[in-house]
């Protein structure tokens, strides 16, 4: 096994770069060919397993790429849950595609850091173009386009998007009502019991007291959507107590059940009380590329202050990539901007004059961190390589698979669909009430996942343990969905037979 002495180390030697990159691509191509042969969930769940296999210290000398990849194959892969397996139906999908991978390679290879305009003008401008393209594709109103007074930015996650918009809402509210930072104790955030927990985390991070976060119950009667009347009643009670309504989160495609909140009705409540309305469409926003799903998001979006969706979930874009649009960027940049001398866009030749003119964006002021990745490249590649029609077909294919699974569940009298299917998410369980039935459903899910042939996750709603099947993998075909249903049925047969014998 060769080594790399320090005096010959050339980290970006073009020939070595080509050879190492080719080795990794070949490794990944082989992995994707065989990914369906791995247990979907990590084969080993033993904490500390990898630490036992790896040396205590880093190597003194460099090692060949093939030796490193051999260790990945032997030691790392068995401890991974294979998110790109065609039988991965857990959480929500985490998409990947060859186009996104190519764009990511270019992004990583170029390795630019476009935090201010002058740091890489084309990178910043490509992001503004891509964000406008995406806004138009999913039917957002013109007020979210750069030409319409708004604009968009690529964040890493919904959590980052929520924190940024909460900070913008906080500072806007304090400026409007003329209170200092002590007034933050009066600000209140509203969400439903189906809203992703990232909203509560974000509220804490921007200083909102946990006691000022309102979790509003939903019910099956409303499809587990957040009712505007419930929000209005809660807001009225808070106003009567001298509190200040700050931020309302509406969700299109909730994590647990895929519920869709009524954006327009919630927008009316938000406008009436001066709240910031954020629409979280992390998962289901991708479906809005299809006309038949666009209304969930577009109806009322003109009343929102911000909208977010994650192309890395269901839009063929590798992690990480979250689109955040704001109707008025000045509120975002006022809360997040810094302007030290060393970061100003100054022309070094002319000396002292701003380079950034109309249309120039310093994206450091649109996010939490200073440094940032060139994420626009991979999303641009996805849009260019597959086109809107290709992505629509991809989304519709997954929805059709989920529709089939929903019908199959409904055709087996032992099972029930707990909530109406939304998009490509089906929530189901063995019928019955009480802890005993919940226990059977827990056993069913554990046995399915333990088989290694599929991976699903769960949710608890109104005290019921529910199994979730989320279709959306880039390699998933109808046969994988059928196999998953057959696995569920066979496993249920075994469990119910064992219980009758006890």
UniProtKB/TrEMBL annotation:
PANTHER family: GROUP II PYRIDOXAL-5-PHOSPHATE DECARBOXYLASE, OS10G0400500 PROTEIN
Molecular function GO labels: carboxy-lyase activity; pyridoxal phosphate binding
Natural source organism: Leersia perrieri
Keywords for this protein: Decarboxylase, Lyase, Pyridoxal phosphate
Record Gene3D superfamilies: Aspartate Aminotransferase, domain 1 (3.90.1150.10), dopa decarboxylase, N-terminal domain (1.20.1340.10), Type I PLP-dependent aspartate aminotransferase-like (Major domain) (3.40.640.10)
Protein family: Belongs to the group II decarboxylase family.
BP GO terms, sorted: amino acid metabolic process; carboxylic acid metabolic process
Keyword check for Lyase: yes
Residue numbers carrying N6-(pyridoxal phosphate)lysine: 313
Obligatory cofactor(s): pyridoxal 5'-phosphate
Protein name: Tyrosine decarboxylase
Keyword Lyase: yes
InterPro entries for this protein: Aromatic_deC, PyrdxlP-dep_de-COase, PyrdxlP-dep_Trfase, PyrdxlP-dep_Trfase_major, PyrdxlP-dep_Trfase_small
Recorded GO CC terms: cytoplasm
